[in-house]
Structures
1.
Amino acid sequence: MNIIYFILGTIILSLFVGSITFFIIEATNTKNNKDKPVIGGCSTTEYGCCPNGTTASNKSGTNCFIGGCSTTEYGCCPDGKTAKNKDGTNC
């Protein structure tokens, strides 16, 4: 009977130590990951980003909305917010 208690005690102790070790490692990894740069962003888009730093630019940058409709290549859609493409099919 003592051997059964010994085995059960060893299993429980191993689970306890393993759990504590896991949480310590996870806490350390989470802390260290805050200092690493975010993967993605403007440098990973095909044509970079618009000047606002968040919108992915198309090849010619015509989807970048800077300073109102007068500054887009084809003006704006009727909603006054979306930059219109050449034939206006994106409105």
Note: The mean pLDDT is 77.
2.
Amino acid sequence: MLPKTNRGLGKDEIDAVFTKSATSKNEYFTVLKKEVEGETNPRFAILVSKKLAKRAVDRNRMKRLVFDQIQKELATYKPGHYVVLIKKSFEQKRPLP
């Protein structure tokens, strides 16, 4: 699990990332990044739509998988706020029980 200092953006912070951010996309994710002055650590929020996974257990599993991968590569991220949007193809690649 990521340290508390690297996870958990509030609603206002997530909204700010959506309004003004750099976007990066691939087959499984859309990553939005906003540089924030005074921020010393990269902070992450992972969003999974209820359309993608109805059950909270499934959404939480997806988030854990992504958080684990982020933790392995944490040193490569610059300070700022990141929002990761999981796409439908992610669930198709790693089917849930």
Note: The longest strand covers residues 80-86.
3.
Amino acid sequence: MQTKRFLRQLIRVKTKYQVTLPAQVRRQAGLRVGDLLEAKVEGDTISLTPMSVVERELALALEDVRLGRTKGPFKTAEDAIRNLRRTGR
């Protein structure tokens, strides 16, 4: 059984509140240029969690539902497509 290796390194907050993740941290987390990270603050701890675009899009869709920006339900897929064409979306 493989155990997780925990890596701790100090990083400096720069003038525009930017930070650079050390290469070893990026490699261990599997990060690539363009990846999205969710920043979360709990007490005095800041955590960065890799997120996918699907999770971001799902969050936006759920916000639309919460605010009542939805259509339907539709009886058929054709009804849904017809509504999309009618509303220009």
Note: The longest strand covers residues 36-42.
